[in-house]
Specification:
Strand content: 5-15%
Number of strands: 4
Distance between the termini: 46 Å
Number of helices: 13
Shape: globular
Strand order of the largest sheet: 1-2-4-3
Helix content: 25-40%
Radius of gyration: 21 Å
Length: about 280
């Protein structure tokens, strides 16, 4: 097996500066093409109408299936939505996310216990374990790991991606559109297409590592300044550069989760899951 030579990184590295929005970010042990790809990730929301390269879908699914799977249960499936009519309907169901109609491919990722249920039924067996919350989490986590492999692989094919959590806003209607059976639930979507070079996406800065990295035991900060450092200012600077409305991150996250209305229909997700065949015991 061949390995790619790694070079020591410096805090001044452009990708590291972009990821943290500052020039004094802690340096990494090394940089290489794999890390360059991961550090340079950006969500693309402007696509060309161009078709995907030949066999791109199959290549991306192979990458997805190369992700880890708990106990090799492989409790996920994906529905590839390519027809303009179905993608236009998904725009409606996801709060008017027009880039879903722009890009030629929408991947609806499912937590899918129905496959195991069918296998057991054909064998005259029961799988009571699929009724528990743990089983749904297995499917949702497996789907997320698989989809992230697609996100990491897409740039190597000249493609961009963006997740669509709004697939959960109106889940019953999404289920009807996709024709998913009981025991399979759409947990999120992924838009895939050729990025529009006239509207390039930029790397969005993340929280400083001090906010998310805890060594040995969780450390509870006493203030917001200690919690997130100067991230509010870093994000406002990014918003200004992008011509976006400026808002502190600490305000944004509280507003996003302040009440049931802010969840845009996802406050009834447990009900929708039970209707779809997930008792969540």
């Amino acid at each position: 097996m061949t390995t790619t030579a790694a070079t020591p990184s410096a805090a001044a590295d452009p990708l590291l500066r972009a990821r943290y929005g500052r020039s004094d970010a802690a340096p990494l042990a090394a940089l290489n093409p794999v890390l360059d790809n991961l550090l340079g990730h950006r969500s693309v929301r402007a696509f060309l109408p161009d078709a995907l390269p030949a066999h791109a879908l199959e290549t991306l699914v192979a990458a997805a299936q190369s992700a880890p799977s708990s106990s090799n249960l492989q409790t996920w499936s994906v529905v590839a939505v390519e027809s303009p009519e179905a993608r236009a309907r998904l725009v409606e169901l996801t709060g008017n996310q027009k880039h879903i109609a722009q890009a030629p491919l929408f991947l609806a990722w499912l937590a899918d216990l129905s496959r195991i249920q069918r296998i057991a039924e054909r064998a005259g067996r029961e799988v009571a374990g699929t009724a528990y919350l743990e089983a749904f989490l297995l499917g949702a986590i497996d789907a997320a790991l698989a989809a992230q492999n697609v996100v990491a692989a897409a740039p190597s094919l000249g493609l961009g991606t963006v997740f669509a959590g709004a697939l959960r806003n109106r889940p019953e209607e999404v289920i009807e559109l996709l024709g998913t059976p009981r025991g399979a639930f759409p947990v999120f979507g992924l838009v895939v297409g050729v990025p529009d070079p006239a509207r390039p996406a930029d790397v969005k800065p993340r929280l400083p590592q001090s906010a998310v990295l805890h060594r040995e035991r969780y450390r509870v900060p006493a203030t917001n300044a200690e919690e997130v450092g100067d991230y509010d200012a870093v994000l406002r600077a990014f918003q200004a550069e992008q011509g976006l409305p400026q808002q502190d991150w600490t305000t944004l996250v509280v507003n996003r989760l302040q009440d049931a209305k802010a969840l845009h229909g996802r406050d009834r997700l447990a009900e929708a899951l039970r209707h779809a065949g997930f008792p969540l015991k």
